[in-house]
Amino acid sequence: MQFSTFALAALASLASAQSTGTKMHVVTVGINGTLKFSPESVTAAVGDMIQFQFVAGNHTATQSTFANPCQPIGAHSNLTGFHSGFQPAAASQAMGMTSTYTIPINDTTPIWIYCAQGKHCESGMVMVVNEVSTSNKTLAAYKQLAASASTVVPSGTNTTTGGTAGTTTTSGTGTSATSGAMSITTSSATAEFGGMMRYQKG
Q: Positions of the region Disordered (predicted)?
């Protein structure tokens, strides 16, 4: 098995995060060919990470608001949330890789997430991080709103700002790695983040 220097640094960084008590919550996207995030609800503490693992289909993990599911959060607020970009699992798996997208949890405010592929969101491919069960803003209510919504794909890919940053990683065997930074500008905010590709046996 071969790893690039950057890939090894990425793995070391994840190991370091785990050694400091950071919890990694894994969400499987498209499990068994379904239009689902699994699990659909995650409770995460500040400092935890959510890692989306794309195992089937061609899906996204895209942040929205509760009131406007299936649409990027920036379309209805002055925030620009995260968007993993489309992750074609079959292409990655053909090369022995698994695509992942990881976000840190900076506070415990609920995070509403949808898949921006076709009508996947309307079909119930949504989830929540830190749902408040005593509120009327529940996952069940979000799914109901999504059923009559219209999906909007954010412009650009791998966009991240606001309270939550994201990192794209592709896991699998390989000999190359890519790193870089991306700037996303909206009418009210500009943000930058570093993208990271890593390869390890999937």
A: 153-181
| Per-residue model confidence as pLDDT tens digits over 8-20 | 334 444 565 566 6
Domain count, the chain: 1
CA 55 to chain centre: 13
Assess if residue 94 is contained within a domain. yes
| Widest Cα–Cα separation across the chain | 50
CATH number of 54's domain: 2.60.40.420
Please write the tens of the pLDDT for every residue from 126-160: 999 999 989 999 999 999 999 999 999 998 544 44
Tokens of 52: 């989306």
Q: Cβ distance 165 to 104 under 8 Å? A: yes
What is the sign, positive or negative, of the torsion defined by CA atoms of 147, 148, 150, 154? negative
Report if residue 17 sits inside a domain. Answer: no
Residue 42 belongs to what domain range? 23-168+182-196
**Model-level pTM?**
0.72
Break the chain down into helix, strand, coil percent, rounded to 5. Answer: 20, 30, 50
Distance between terminal CA atoms of the chain?
11
- Phi, psi angle pair for 66, to nearest 5°: -60, -45
Residue at 16 is within a domain: no
Q: How far apart are CA 68 and CA 6, in angstroms?
A: 38
